[in-house]
Amino acid sequence: MKVLVIGLGGVTNGGKTTLAEKLKKMLPNCDIISQDDFFKPESEVETDERGFKLYDVLDALYMDEMVKSIRNWMKNPGSSSVVTEEPQNMCNNLKNTDHVYILIVEGFLLYNYEPLNELWNRRYFLTLPYEECKRRRSTRVYQPADTPGYFDGHVWPMYLKYKNELEENASNIVYLDGTKSQEELLSCVYGDIIQELKKLRE
After folding, report:
1. Can you tell me which family this protein belongs to (predicted)?
2. Catalytic residue among 31, 36, 152, 192
3. Mean pLDDT for each 10-residue chunk of the chain (202 residues)?
């Protein structure tokens, strides 16, 4: 039994969750773990001097729990809640991959935490320009809600900080343009994963 662990990281509102869900429908034996499920409760998240809750940093997340969840899945992927029915429009070149299990991990801060970096087979990073990211973010409702100035004061600066760290330290990351259509992004990542599956089978 082989496992493929795919990271789908990047900017807030870049389309990570949508892409992960679409890939899950198209790939055999595929599960998703979402980083958003590992946020600490609001009472444990630090507040800065401007009154901003500092959610867009690693300290706002139970990262060790997240690593544990991924490792547990890797030890026993067949036993998770994964649906093993045939994916929609499954193409023939996937028929022999029944013994390969795929985990898509999606989140905004995946590659800046060292213990996670030894787990990836492939890493993708969705980017958006500032204006588009701010526009999309303003259409979403968060719990707790974004306070005025939060995007410019915390969210965007943290995104740039972590992205710069990545560009300095990490290799083998495929950067994806989040302004492209969902179909284009899906086709690009799906095609890539199929190549990885073929390599695993060889």
Report:
1. Belongs to the uridine kinase family. NRK subfamily.
2. 36
3. 94 96 95 96 94 95 96 86 48 60 96 93 96 94 88 96 90 94 96 92 78
Positive or negative, the CA dihedral 131, 179, 175, 67 is positive
Q: Strand (E) positions, 98-201?
A: 100-107, 122-127, 173-177
> What is the structure's pLDDT at 98?
61
Q: How far is CA 92 from CA 46, 100, 190, 191, 193, in A?
A: 50, 15, 14, 14, 15
Structure tokens at 104: 């898509």
- Check if 37 is active-site: no
Is-contact 52 153, C-beta < 8 A?
Answer: yes
Q: How many CB atoms lie within 10 A of CB 55?
A: 22
C-alpha 23/C-alpha 67 separation (Å) is: 22
Distance CA 103, CA 172 (A): 18
Of residues 128, 163, 135, 159, the one with CA closest to residue 55: 159
Q: What is the DSSP letter of 110?
A: -
Query: 135-162 burial, b if ≥16 CB within 10 A, otherwise e?
Result: ebbeeeeeeeebeeebbeebbbebbeeb
Q: What does the alpha-carbon distance between residue 125 and residue 109 come to, in Å, rounded to a whole number?
A: 10
**E strand or H helix at 185, and its extent?**
helix 182-201
Residue 197: closest CA among 29, 19, 63, 8: 29
